[in-house]
Design brief:
single chain; about 575 residues; alpha+beta; six-stranded antiparallel β-sheet; about 30% helix; about 25% strand; cell membrane; membrane; transmembrane; ATP binding; Phospholipid-transporting ATPase
């Protein structure tokens, strides 16, 4: 396989290695073990008990409203002042302001430093308030989003109502449609797809853009209308909120049947995930607000300082030491001069000075020389950073028209960090190259198909040999491998149901299934346990016994399938 930034990528497959297994086997069902119910009855502190679709829960749970703002009305002043006086220059000028309030010490007046310092802090406060207002505005938009919630009533035929995200409660049954984000952590009940399957994108959680499959319990797959949901009487017993995105354990208890089924991470839909390729799902809210897993993994916004700002503190200390030495030298020389000249210059009134004259002289010179550290430095930097952030936000050259995104300076304190970057480390694929892969040629049983020069791989010799050549069995197995050994999810087009779009985690897998589609070998259905392929005119169904996805250690992907004849085979695809 080659990658070239100036040429199209060529996929060259060697001979396929297959392993056949003769024994019968059942699919390996892997579920996360539920909490021990006997222990939970004695220790409810370690589990969460949720009454499904009931307005009153056993305990009061967290609100679904979230806040990512840094300040509130009461905490703004103490937090802001604490952060501002992390800057040594502000501490220095605060000392000068205090010294200027001592009578007979300041040669410049009591307010000459106080007013500029208040102005500096005021400019910083306005900047912080504006940035925090943007965070509050974003939180408000998210909290006021609406979704459909089922709250049963004996007087209203339809119990569905439009509810703001912030008003969603633990135990509510919600309906999410395609293209919507999940407002809380949910347990999937049913969906528009068979067997309660749904497809989600978790790029907001882990950065992965490929679709993932989630499947509800078969027992709840028939809960598809209001009548069924009204009669649904159940409780959920699960673990307490935690930050583990890929772990979950619990039980779903059917109270009318005294039935208890385990639930695991495959049944959980996390807040921030996006529903795709599925018209709708019903889910039970299990964690809300700051108890959701995405919020458990977030931290409070820290006070960030740039390298330039960090470097000014040692420089301020150096200037402070120089100022101290100059003031001390001036006070000493002043005392020496007075000792020799006070009598001859009696009209200046030096004889009336107290014994503390040296100390007062030192403070006077300290205040007089304080301009050695420029007070305008901080306010200038604050204004420049604020304007820079505004220019970044309005820069039309940094607008991505394809996705509708523009540059956003979330923290203006770090603008100058962009200028400190010397090296950018990046992987090659998809960043320095186009990452466009097309199926060009392959080799099966020693016979090469395709020259690599065609616009598309349309090798009719391969189809002819599939029916007549002595290697037709190997060709059949090769094409079956390409059609089944992947994690691609098909998406049927509404305007052309016979044509599929494919959601693939890697461009090579997408190239494989698209090339097969041109041959009439169409991968058109996937569930956690089955794969369906239209192989020319034949419909084939394979049962998935196990799937080992590609990883960097194995450098390959494997899938164990059982075909319609009961034969079990292991298909393996290398990097």
């Amino acid at each position: 396989m080659k990658n070239d930034s100036n040429q199209e990528n060529i996929i060259d497959l060697g001979e396929t290695v297959l392993s056949s297994v003769t024994m019968d086997s059942q699919p390996n069902q892997t579920t996360t073990p539920p909490p021990d119910s006997s222990n939970n009855q004695n220790n409810h502190d370690n589990v969460r008990l949720i009454r499904v679709s009931k307005p009153i829960q056993t305990v009061k749970y967290c609100s679904n409203s979230i806040s990512t703002s840094k300040y509130n009305f009461l905490t703004f002043l103490p937090i802001f002042l604490f952060e501002q006086f992390q800057k040594y220059s502000n501490v220095f000028f605060l000392i000068i302001v205090i010294l200027q309030q001592i009578p007979g010490v300041s040669p410049t007046g009591r307010y000459t430093t106080l007013v500029p310092l208040v102005f500096i802090l005021g400019v910083s406060a306005v900047k912080e308030i504006l940035e925090d207002y943007k965070r509050r505005k974003s939180d408000k938009m998210l909290n006021n989003k609406k979704t459909r919630v089922f709250r049963p009533s004996n007087y209203i035929e339809s119990s569905w109502s439009s509810v703001k995200w912030k008003d969603i409660c633990v135990g509510d049954i919600v309906k999410i449609t395609a293209g919507e984000l999940f407002p809380a952590d949910l347990l999937i009940l049913s969906s528009s797809e068979p067997n309660s399957i749904c497809y989600i994108q978790t790029s907001n959680l882990d950065g992965e853009t490929n679709l993932k499959i989630r499947q509800g319990l078969s027992k709840t797959s028939l809960l598809i209308d209001s009548d069924h949901l009204k009669s649904f009487n159940a409780e959920i017993e699960c673990e307490l909120p935690n930050q583990h995105l890929y772990e979950f354990s619990g039980n779903l208890k059917f109270l009318d049947e005294t039935l208890e089924l385990p639930i695991g991470p495959d049944q959980i839909l996390l807040r921030g995930s996006l529903l795709q390729n599925t018209k709708w799902i019903y889910g039970i809210v299990i964690y809300t607000g700051h108890e959701t897993k995405i919020m458990k993994n977030s931290t409070s916004p820290p006070f960030k300082r740039s390298q330039v700002e960090k470097s000014t503190n040692p420089q301020i200390i150096a200037l402070f030491i120089i100022l101290f030495v100059i003031s001390l030298f001036s006070a000493i020389t002043s005392e020496i001069w007075l000792a020799h000249n006070s009598k001859s210059h009696w009209y200046l009134g030096f004889g009336d000075e107290s014994a503390n004259n040296f100390f007062y002289s030192f403070l006077t010179f300290f205040i007089l020389y304080n301009n050695l550290i420029p007070i305008s430095l901080q306010v200038t930097l604050e204004l420049v950073k604020f304007l820079q952030a505004s220019f970044i936000n309005m820069d039309e050259e940094m607008y991505d028209s394809e996705n509708g995104f523009s540059a956003i300076a979330r923290t203006s304190n770090l603008n100058e960090e962009l200028g400190q970057v010397k090296y950018v480390f990046s992987d090659k694929t998809g960043t320095l190259t186009c990452n466009k892969m097309e199926f060009k040629r392959c080799s099966i049983a020693g016979i090469q198909y395709g020259t690599g020069n065609e616009q598309e791989f349309n090798c009719y010799e391969l189809l002819n040999n599939l029916s007549t050549h002595e290697t037709k069995k190997e060709i059949d197995e090769f094409l079956t491998l390409l059609a089944t050994c992947h994690t691609v999810i098909p998406d049927k087009r509404e305007e052309s149901p016979e044509i599929f779009d494919y959601q693939a985690s890697s461009p090579d897998e997408s190239a494989f299934v698209k090339a097969l589609q041109r041959f009439g070998i169409v991968f058109h259905s996937r569930t956690p346990n089955k794969i369906k392929v239209k192989f020319l005119e034949e419909e084939r169904e394979y049962q998935i016994l196990n799937l080992l996805e590609f990883n960097s250690n194995r450098k390959r992907m494997s899938v164990i399938l059982k075909d319609q004849d009961g034969t079990i085979k292991l298909y393996c695809k290398g990097a």
